[in-house]
Design brief:
Blueprint lengths: L14 H8 L6 H5 L5 E4 L14 E8 L4 E5 L2 E9 L4 E7 L4 H4 L6 E10 L2 E5 L2 E3 L1 H7 L3 E4 L8 H14 L9 H7 L4 H9 L4 H30 L12 H9 L6 H15 L5 E6 L5 H14 L3 E5 L3 H15 L6 E4 L5 H12 L5 E4 L13 E6 L7 H8 L6 E6 L5 H7 L4 E5 L10 E6 L3 H13 L3 E5 L7 H18 L6 E4 L5 H12 L5 E4 L12 E6 L7 H8 L10 E6 L4 H12 L3 H11 L25 H16 L9 H11 L5
Parallel strand pairs: 5-7, 10-15, 10-16, 11-13, 11-14, 12-13, 14-15, 17-22, 18-20, 18-21, 19-20, 21-22
Antiparallel strand pairs: 1-9, 2-4, 2-6, 3-4, 4-5, 6-7, 6-8
This protein binds adenosine-5'-diphosphate (ADP) and magnesium ion.
The site of adenosine-5'-diphosphate has 19 residues, from helix 11.
Length: 678
């Protein structure tokens, strides 16, 4: 078995399973082996009951407080009892195991392990596993991998398939040069794969993780530096001159550009008129007004006779940008087209024809923009918005659709400058470090779940005043499908909790693009007043009339992501509010959330978050979840990122890469940067 084999070559995976695995982007044996655990179930020491918290999986030891009770609810038999260990007690329930009632004896010590939940206000465990002392001791310290899943694929099934693949796959070719592995103390690839999926202990896992994270950053940095070296000499073949239409737009706007926006706009104008093609990253906090800057650039390209496009990660955002840009640019005779996946075949065909014939000046869309079928005519500028949601490769594929078009990249991820220089090392950096002056700072609060009703009353009051609200639904780790169900359920409850005159609707990732668009449109127009959503709304959405953002389970999100979510409000002239509802009262959680409570500055928050994180914090919350790394996290693994980038830089200086012995490394690099970069 080799990496590139189809996953059906693994025993036990047939055509039906194959389809389900594809939903996890697992097509080959290699994909399967790089489907790394998102966390581990670590068998830890017994815990005093007084110390356990909701949401944790723990083992406890105690005796029955009273004889167990058996109840029947519909067809379900339930055996429940209260267990005490002297420090506190906890409710335990078993379903459809009536024999437990006889088995459980007063006075006997039991070891139970399971997830702690809160039921009717009491800490409880449903269906915990019971262990003998011997079994428990044997398991102590072991780590079971936990994978991200999809409907129809269980954790057990994945663990088993990966186990089989690890046994049968031929040793993958090592692609990190030996000297580098030696210098940075990295174990070999095959061993790392085994140890990341089935670590014997924490040390093994950390060693494996370090190798893989370094690997991801190293190949990425090589790709970036290659592109940079190649481009430094790229002549500007699409020179653009300033046009009067841009100045007219600026005059017509209901506001004045901030100094920071003005500065970036000047930089862009200078770039596209210079000797070299533009490759610029505009980093600006949420709400800093990046869209208008991009719009001006698109206008300038059009009036210089060039086609240009704007690629965004979601259809909702594409639609929104499309409408805004048409409104601004149509009066100048500039034609804009939308190109998104949910369009019919006919609609797409017609759009392709208009694009190829250059009847369209600006094309706005999602990944649909980089399909083979799209042929541009004199593509002179490509803009990607929310770049952190794309891979470098997608950005490059878009650029390759033209003859060395200018590249403008926008991102709101407040990555500290030291890291941004590495991650976007092939680009020049502009920062919009100023918010429009008319903004009132958002008022924040961090509360626990008891505050929910008060929050609902507050939302009602804002809606009565004509405003709108977002509620981000409790997060579900297991799968997107469960998350979707969760949003639907939460919405039903919220409708009951709020005054019936308020329109509440929901949005989640499993909905069809057309449904999402419709909901977003109705929310934008004010017809829907409260929008319950998963984090799908976090990117780019702009409804300035929304003034309340309520985030359930705030403790499960990274600070940077919470900051992005918060950025959906405070976009207009009304006072806005952000309510972070935390399901955990742990000190660390509170300390983290307090940072958000006290600052609305994304860069500050990112830096503080970084400081609070220790080496043990690599699971659970992925800061930059959407970056293109499978395991690495640019925030948590910042120190490895710096090492790997330094190693890559040195290595490139040696001009080693083109030697035959590095062919596997070259393969890896092209998987990041696309064919033409090497
Ligand atoms: P982001 O940087 O998050 O993409 P947007 O470009 O969506 O932000 O802008 C957010 C809102 O601020 C929009 O409604 C936009 O019209 C408005 N805006 C942009 N620039 C200014 C400005 N200089 N003054 C006032 N409002 C502005
Ligand atoms: Mg934006």
């Amino acid at each position: 078995m080799v990496f590139s084999d189809d996953i059906t070559s693994i025993k036990g995976i047939g055509a039906a399973a194959k389809e389900k695995f594809q939903k996890l982007s697992i097509f080959t044996v290699g994909d399967l082996l790089e489907h790394y655990p998102v966390n581990y179930d670590i068998f830890e020491q017994l815990r005093p009951i007084a110390t356990v918290e909701e949401g944790e999986t723990v083992a406890i030891e105690g005796v029955l407080l009273r004889h167990p009770e058996t109840r029947k609810v519909r067809n379900l038999s339930m055996v429940s009892c209260r267990i005490t260990d002297g420090t506190s007690n906890i409710y335990v329930t078993w379903f459809n195991m009536p024999f437990m009632a006889k088995q459980l004896k007063m006075g006997t010590h039991y070891i139970l392990r399971g997830k702690v939940i809160r039921k009717n206000g009491f800490l409880s465990m449903d269906q915990p596993t019971m262990y003998s002392r011997q079994d428990f001791t044997n398991k102590l310290g072991t780590m079971q991998p936990i994978y991200s899943l999809t409907a129809g694929v269980s954790n057990n099934q994945l663990t088993k398939a990966i186990g089989t693949a690890l046994k049968e796959v031929e040793a993958p070719k090592e692609h990190i040069p030996l000297e580098i592995r030696k210098r940075y103390g990295l174990i070999d690839y095959k061993k790392a794969l085994r140890m990341i999926h089935a670590p014997k202990n924490m040390d093994e896992m950390l060693e494996a993780r370090r190798r893989i994270v370094f690997d991801e950053f190293f190949t990425f940095s090589l790709a970036i530096q290659y592109m940079k070296n190649n481009r430094a000499i790229t002549k500007n073949e699409n020179v653009m001159q300033p046009v009067k239409e841009c100045d007219e737009i600026l005059e017509r706007l209901p506001y004045k550009l901030t100094n920071a926006q003005m500065k970036v706009w000047e930089e862009i104008k200078k770039d596209v008129a210079s000797d070299h093609m533009m490759q610029r990253l505009v980093q600006g906090d949420v709400g800093s007004g990046k869209t208008i800057v991009a719009t001006l650039a698109l206008c300038m390209a059009a009036k210089n006779g060039y086609q240009s496009c704007l690629m965004v990660p979601t259809e909702v955002l594409a639609k929104q940008h499309y409408e805004g840009i048409v409104e601004l640019l149509e009066p100048f005779g500039i034609k804009t087209d939308l190109l998104v996946g949910s369009m019919t075949v006919k609609q797409k065909r017609e759009a392709y024809a208009r694009i190829a014939a250059h009847e369209t000046d600006i094309v706005i869309g999602t990944h649909a923009l980089i399909q083979d079928k799209v042929e541009y005519d004199r593509l002179g500028l490509v803009v990607t918005d929310e770049q952190h949601r794309f891979g470098v490769k997608q950005r490059e594929t878009l650029a390759e659709k033209g003859e060395k078009p200018h590249i403008l990249v926008m991102s709101a991820t407040p990555i500290p400058r030291t890291l941004a220089i590495i991650l976007y090392g092939d680009l020049d950096l502009s920062v919009i470090d100023e918010l429009p002056a008319n903004r009132l700072p958002i008022k924040n609060c961090v509360v626990n779940t008891n505050y929910r009703q008060t929050a609902y009353r507050f939302i009602e009051k804002e809606v009565l005043d004509g405003r709108q609200a977002y509620v981000i639904c409790p997060m579900v780790e297991e799968s997107e499908t469960i998350e979707a169900e969760n949003v639907v359920e939460y919405t039903a409850k919220l409708r009951e909790a709020l005054s019936p005159s308020i329109q509440v609707e929901y949005l989640h990732g499993k909905m069809k693009a057309s449904e999402k668009n419709e909901i977003m449109e109705r929310f934008s127009s004010g017809e829907i007043q409260v929008l319950v959503s998963t984090t799908v709304i976090e990117v780019g959405v702009n409804v300035p009339n929304s003034t309340v953002m309520m985030v359930e389970n705030a403790e499960r999100f990274g600070l940077a992501q919470l900051h992005q979510l918060r950025g959906r409000v405070g976009r207009g002239k009304h006072q806005s509010y952000c309510i972070f509802v935390s399901g955990s009262r742990s000190k660390e959680t509170m300390k983290r959330l307090e940072i958000l409570n006290h600052s609305n500055d994304g860069f500050y928050i990112a830096e503080e978050d970084l400081k609070l994180r220790g080496p043990g914090d690599m699971f659970g919350i992925r800061q930059s979840g959407e970056m293109e790394f499978k395991l690495a996290d640019v925030f948590n693994d910042a120190s490895v990122l710096k090492q790997a980038a330094a190693a890559a830089k040195e290595f490139l200086n040696d001009e080693e890469l083109m030697k035959k012995k590095h062919e596997y490394l070259r393969e890896r690099i092209t998987s990041y940067a696309g064919q033409t970069s090497l």
